[in-house]
Amino acid sequence: MVDLGRNDISDQGNNTIRNNDNGNFQVYNNTGYTVNAYNNIWDYQTALEIDAHIYDNEEGSMGEVYFDPWITENPINHPPIANAGDAQTVHAGSIVNLDGSYSLDSDGNYPLTYLWEIVSKPQTSLAILSDPTTVSPTFTVDQPGNYIIELVVADNLGLSSEPAQVQISTINSPPVSDAGPDQAVLIIGSIIQLDGTQSWDDDGDPITYYWNIIEKPAGSNAVLNNQNISTPEFIVDVYGEYKIELIVNDSWTSSNSDQIVISFNNVKPLADAGNNQSYLTTEIVYLDGSSSSDENNDILNYIWSIASKPEGSESLIDAQNIINPTFVPDMVGEYVITLIVNDGELESDPSSITVSVLSRLTVVSETLQEGIQTINQLPLESLKNSNMANTLTNKLNTILLKVDQGNYVDAENQLTNDLLKKTDGCANSGTPDKNDWITDCESQNQIYTLIIQSIDLLNDLINGLAKQIANEAKIVPKTFYLYQNYPNPFNPSTSIKYDLPKSTNVRIVIYNQLGKEIETIINKNQNAGGYTIEYSGINLSSGIYFYRITAGEFRDTKKLIFLK
Predict the structure, then answer these.
(1) Is the dihedral of CA 183, 185, 188, 192 positive or negative?
(2) How does DSSP assign 488-507, residue by residue?
(3) If DSSP codes are grouped into helix, strand and coil, which group holds residue 385?
(4) What is the value of pTM for the model shown?
(5) Alpha carbon distance 351, 97 (integer Å)
(6) 75 cis-preceded (ω within 30 degrees of 0)
(7) Comparing C-alpha atoms, which of 112, 90, 92 is closest to residue 101?
(8) Within its chain, how far is the Cα of 76 from the centroid?
(9) Beta strands of 343-436 (E only): which ranges?
(10) Cα Dmax for the chain
(11) Strand order in the sheet with 9-10
(12) Contact in structure between 183 and 265 (CB atoms under 8 Å)
């Protein structure tokens, strides 16, 4: 029994039982409409017994109000948890793709908002983030050295996380430890095989292992047969729970600790939200949680959420509690989808995927999408770490959005200086090298070929060699379209592109965050075609601004950031 006392409570459907300060409670539905009153509802069981038929005192039956098992007294909002991704080692001049998609909120108060900041960089560096408020911003490493990037996320109630940091270095990055999944055990005397083989180092340096049993049941004498190999063993000798820690070292620095639980009790399940994907707006996105699992073979419950979506999007998952729900993206941009599974007692850690949503398909974007599909089909044993498939496809999703925005230079830079260097060992020397993420040549060559094709197509666009072919459809665009300005953030100038399918008057205006008109860039009749305007922010103060196009009945607004 949960004593409701004299407090308001609510269920997951946002229905509310409100205390009237006289020992009686009033039932409200999730739109605030009074559904019924009850006297002396003091415990959780009574709430369950009376939920079947709710009656309005004057107008008769109002149907059912469901109070589920998560009714809580005085629910507390917990801060979300920021995750800034893994450390990376890159060459000076490279564009780095940051990844906050593994940030989470235990209360499900989504969508999250993101705020990134470069808190430390080489003294002469002028590096800035492409957009510090997106889930996956980029920046150019313009000087050798170490860059420390900080991420803070906030839930939809405005509560902020503690900051999380990630290091981007041209010198060395710490390795990543992976102690494997939690394990269930049934019989005393069982031999437990640990597996740290999924640990890795972004520089390709050899790593050493240090395992430790940091907690074990009272009276246990369990010890590891070897603390310094990738797959040690130990014997469970007492009923209870064992907590194991793994740290790896690359001779220069150590990883963070990764911990797992070996238990005779219930072990939390493992969520798997599937693979990263790419679609066009209004296409149906199919989600798949069928690879989620439970060590105890318990039946799983599913909780899907859209953790992040483009500003202004109203997209919703159609059924959050089934294995294979769908949703329809209504805006161009990046969507982060999170899955948590529950075995009736314990919740899993969240599993997240990203979905890039494009305005249109080109030869380049179709080639990159083929790359995502090919990586998603690779056997996990062909990767240095099983999480690398989603990391690679998340990078491709970021590149797809750059191509969709017309940012061909950044897209080509990221392919050449990031993804290509993780997939080119077999092409260069006939065998995978230490920096390759795909560790067999047959699989690696499939991805390498698609990356090279994409780079060649982008270079054709950049150099104008394929201008007639690539822009043939743009001579008379089929639709109105306003592109994201580039670069963004910018100083001192940026390019604003737009398409006109017919002749019309075009007006583009800059506004500040309060909606005050700052400057009119253009206001004149123009023929059908594609246009680019160079805009100088020399008279602006640092901050966030908006540019709005009005072309006949077409209107669109996008955000630009000026940094002095």
Answers:
(1) negative
(2) SSBSSEEEEEEEESS-EEEE
(3) coil
(4) 0.69
(5) 20
(6) no
(7) 112
(8) 25
(9) 351-358
(10) 85
(11) 34-39, 24-28, 16-19, 9-10, 72-73
(12) no
How many angstroms separate the CA atoms of 191 and 223, rounded? Answer: 11
Burial of 307 (0-12, 13-18, 19+ CB in 10 A): buried
Sign of the CA dihedral with 203 first, then 204, 206, and 211 last: positive
CA 324 to chain centroid: 19
8 burial via Cβ count (<10 Å: 0-12, 13-18, 19+): middle
* Beta strand pairing call for 191-193 and 233-235: antiparallel
Name, in order, each residue with C-beta under 8 angstroms of 252's C-beta and a sequence gap of 6 or more: 172, 205
Spatial contact of 82 and 103, defined as CB atoms under 8 Å apart: yes
Cα separation, 143 vs 474, in Å, equals: 38
**CB–CB of 220/174 below 8 Å?**
no
**Spacing of C-alpha 59 from chain mean position:** 47
Residue 306: other Cβ atoms inside 10 A: 20
Cα separation, 23 vs 1, whole angstroms: 17
The pLDDT assigned to 11 comes to 41
pLDDT value for 64? 38
pLDDT at 383: 92
Q: Let me know: does 88 contact 123? Beta carbons within 8 Å.
A: no
Paired tokens of 215: 């907690």
Q: Which residues of 234-250 are buried (b: 16+ CB within 10 A; e: fewer)?
A: bebbeebebebbbbbbb
- Matching residue, tokens 């969507």: 335
- Which pairing describes strands 183-184 and 258-263: parallel, antiparallel, or unpaired? parallel
CA angle 427, 419, 89 (to 5 degrees): 110
Query: Rounded to whole angstroms, how far apart are CA atoms 538 and 314?
Result: 36
Amino acid at 446: Q
CB 451 within 8 A of CB 423: yes
Q: Are 105 and 157 in contact (CB under 8 A)?
A: no
What are the mean pLDDT values of the chain's consecutive 10-residue runs (564 residues total)? 37 41 40 37 35 35 38 68 92 90 90 95 92 92 94 94 94 91 95 95 91 96 96 96 96 93 94 95 94 94 95 92 95 94 92 93 92 94 89 94 89 92 92 91 94 92 60 66 90 89 93 90 89 87 92 92 83
Strands (E), 113-161: 113-120, 138-140, 146-154
Residue 75: predicted pLDDT: 63
Cβ atoms < 10 Å from Cβ of 547: 24
Give the pair of three-digit tokens for residue 247: 């740290």
Q: How far apart are the C-alpha atoms of 335 and 281, rounded to whole Å?
A: 12
Predicted local distance difference test score (pLDDT) of residue 45: 35
Of residues 400, 441, 448, 401, the one with CA closest to residue 422: 448
The label of the residue with tokens 């793994």 reads 246
* pLDDT attached to residue 524: 92
Name the token pair of 225: 């047969």
| Chain centre to alpha carbon of residue 155 | 14
Q: What single-letter DSSP state applies at residue 216?
A: -
Beta-carbon contacts of 457 under 8 Å, excluding residues fewer than 6 positions away, are 363, 364, 367, 466
